[in-house]
Specification:
Length: 194
């Protein structure tokens, strides 16, 4: 591998690191100050995507990649909440940013990421549908967590999104998540006996 190719790959890796500092903007509307980053969102999307893929009997490799790279463009254009999207051609900006991000990557990497992005956008494969469901479900779970932490307005984010879920597994997970306290897992662990 040439020095230039290594530099291009390292630049891409460094740019991915920007996502650890880009905050998810939709939650600001609710007055939540310390919201999760795009990287944190992407990580849990990948976890959820893996789980849904396994539940659906679908190989998870493409789902993992789609969920991990889905918001890569936000390193350049930021996370744009729904109000700001009224005034900007968001899809065009996302595609332009992502295209420029991968333009100087090695042909194999560029080709795979470009193909996965097209597949995700078309939403006509099981992997793409699962990846989108993982994104929606992650937002729903995050909204429920915020609501459980006292942000009453978070329920507004849980009104329309459930209808967008397509897989049986994502719908089932959301139905269960709605009915439980999402903090129970750590509360039980803290009640250990000596």
């Amino acid at each position: 591998m040439s020095k230039n190719k290594e530099t291009n790959l390292l630049n891409f890796i460094a740019e991915a690191g920007m996502l650890k500092r880009v905050r998810r903007s939709g939650w600001w509307v609710l007055g939540i100050k310390d919201v999760e980053t795009v990287a944190e969102h992407s990580f849990r999307c990948a976890v959820i995507g893996y789980i849904i893929a396994c539940m659906e009997g679908t190989p998870p490799y493409k789902v993992l990649l789609m969920t991990l790279f889905n918001d890569m463009h936000e390193a350049r254009i930021n996370d744009l909440h729904k109000m700001s999207q009224r005034y900007i051609k968001v899809k065009e900006a996302e595609e332009k940013a992502f295209g420029e991000q991968i333009a100087s990557l090695p042909k194999a990497v560029k080709g795979e990421l470009s193909g996965l992005r097209r597949e995700y956008n078309k939403q006509n494969t099981k992997e793409a549908i699962i990846s989108r469901d993982a994104d929606i479900l992650e937002c729903l779970i995050q909204a429920k967590e915020y609501e459980e932490h006292g942000y009453k307005e978070a329920f507004k984010f849980m009104k329309k999104a459930p209808a967008l879920l397509k897989t049986k597994s994502a719908k089932k997970l959301w139905s269960s998540a709605k009915a439980m306290a999402l903090n129970e897992w750590w509360e039980r662990l803290s009640e250990f006996k000596r």
